[in-house]
Amino acid sequence: GLMWLQHGGNLRHTSEQNDGVSRYGWLKHDGENFGVQEIRDEGLVLRTEFVKQPGGDHGGDWSWRVTVKMEGKGPAPLLSLFFYVATDGQGTLRPVLENGTRLAAVAGTAEELGDFTLTFLPPTGEGGEEPKYA
């Protein structure tokens, strides 16, 4: 899952009516293999995109991208993104660190999936430049 927090704002985990998020919803999806959703929250535009490559014993491989932009002018506020991972029922998870500090992946085992790895690529800035913080 994904949670986000703008400096001085509320920690968000979901988007629901009457919670102050100005707009949210799917822009495109086929209900199975790809989707693009957008959440607009106090000048923040948070876009998540996923695509599934069918195959394997458990349905295929998934890729997910999160893009953050700010609407309007002025300096962008400090923003934190929190990714979390859990297994349903029985399973194990273990962190995979890069250089002993950066979470590069989460490896796990689940009854439904067998062995799996969730890989986190380093964040990038617009145009491939490095983000201010990571």
Automatic annotation (TrEMBL):
Chief localization: endoplasmic reticulum
Compartments reported by the entry: Endoplasmic reticulum membrane
One Pfam assignment: Glyco_hydro_63N
Gene Ontology MF terms: Glc3Man9GlcNAc2 oligosaccharide glucosidase activity
GO annotation, biological process: oligosaccharide metabolic process; protein N-linked glycosylation
GO cellular component, one term: endoplasmic reticulum membrane
Catalytic reaction(s) noted: N(4)-(alpha-D-Glc-(1->2)-alpha-D-Glc-(1->3)-alpha-D-Glc-(1->3)-alpha-D-Man-(1->2)-alpha-D-Man-(1->2)-alpha-D-Man-(1->3)-[alpha-D-Man-(1->2)-alpha-D-Man-(1->3)-[alpha-D-Man-(1->2)-alpha-D-Man-(1->6)]-alpha-D-Man-(1->6)]-beta-D-Man-(1->4)-beta-D-GlcNAc-(1->4)-beta-D-GlcNAc)-L-asparaginyl-[protein] + H2O = N(4)-(alpha-D-Glc-(1->3)-alpha-D-Glc-(1->3)-alpha-D-Man-(1->2)-alpha-D-Man-(1->2)-alpha-D-Man-(1->3)-[alpha-D-Man-(1->2)-alpha-D-Man-(1->3)-[alpha-D-Man-(1->2)-alpha-D-Man-(1->6)]-alpha-D-Man-(1->6)]-beta-D-Man-(1->4)-beta-D-GlcNAc-(1->4)-beta-D-GlcNAc)-L-asparaginyl-[protein] + beta-D-glucose
Positions of the Glycosyl hydrolase family 63 N-terminal domain: 2-120
Enzyme Commission identifier(s): 3.2.1.106
Bilayer topology annotation: Single-pass type II membrane protein
Presence of the UniProt keyword Hydrolase in the record: yes
InterPro entries assigned to the protein according to its UniProt record, in alphabetical order: Glyco_hydro_63N, Glyco_hydro_63N_sf, Glycoside_hydrolase_63
Keyword Hydrolase: yes
Domain of life: Eukaryota
Protein keywords: Endoplasmic reticulum, Glycosidase, Hydrolase
Function noted in UniProt: Cleaves the distal alpha 1,2-linked glucose residue from the Glc(3)Man(9)GlcNAc(2) oligosaccharide precursor.
Family statement drawn from the similarity comment of this UniProt entry: Belongs to the glycosyl hydrolase 63 family.
Protein name per Swiss-Prot or TrEMBL: Mannosyl-oligosaccharide glucosidase
UniProt source species: Polioptila caerulea
Gene: Mogs_0
